[in-house]
Amino acid sequence: MHTLYACLGSGNCFKPWLALQQLGQPVRVELIDVLKGEQKSDGYLRINPDGVVPFLRTDSGRGIGESNAMLWFIAEGTHLMPDNAEDRAEALQWMFFEQSKLEPYISPARFFTTILPDQREARKDDIAAWQALAAGGLARLNAHLSNRTYMLSSGYSVADIAVFGYVHVLEEAGLSLADYPSIALWIDAVRETAGFQPLAELGQADLRAA
Q: Beta strands of the chain (E only): which ranges?
């Protein structure tokens, strides 16, 4: 059984967990409280010397870092992996886009807006800058989704899960989903896919994680 080291509320931790849930693959979730600094504890550093989450320990004992690398590993040989080389390349394109144009801005804006709201006022200039940077990536994503249901024309895939991780909580970053109607429709479509589990369920015991 795989073991996923994760923290509650994290879009990056959510991505591999969601893929495993939708594939019905068993996983043991070990929660790490990053607000308490548990990711830098001696015990966790022995598991992952980089001291970050998520981190996946596969059933063979090998460790994998980086949420999108975990997704790619989990999706291998399943319906979440596109069938042909061009679609796989496009999936990677959007996974790289997510980590360079979306997550670096939505994640910190959300952190200081919703997760640590007591610091919102002190970080208001940073939040505004992150929101402005996120808006460009979101506009590009919204345009891409204007004539399709999922990220790839071939159907729901690992690319959707990668992008969904933080985009679906963009309002918690102080952004408005009303500005991105095609993204809103896509979020609804992802939530309707088989086996979908919401971010709030991450870390909760269920039959697949037992």
A: 2-6, 27-31, 55-57, 63-65
